[in-house]
Amino acid sequence: xxxxxxxxxxxxxxxxxxxxxxxxxxxxxxxxxxxxxxxxxxxxxxxxxxxxxxxxxxxxxxxxxxxx
Length: 68
Hints:
Elements: H1 13-22, H2 33-40, H3 44-56
C-alpha cells in the first residue's frame, strides 16, 4: 500500500493518479488529496472535480467508475 509522503495516510488509486497527472507521471512517492490541496492551495473538492474531469476525458490514470 502506498502512503502519503507528507502525512502517512494510505492512498487510493485516484490519489496516486492525480499526483501523477499534476506533479510527475513517473513518481514513485505520492501525496494524499489533502496534502496535495495544501501544496497547490486549492480545495479537496476542486481536486475531486479534476479527477472526474480527467476520468471523463478517458485518462488512463483513473479507473472508470463501476456502476451499481
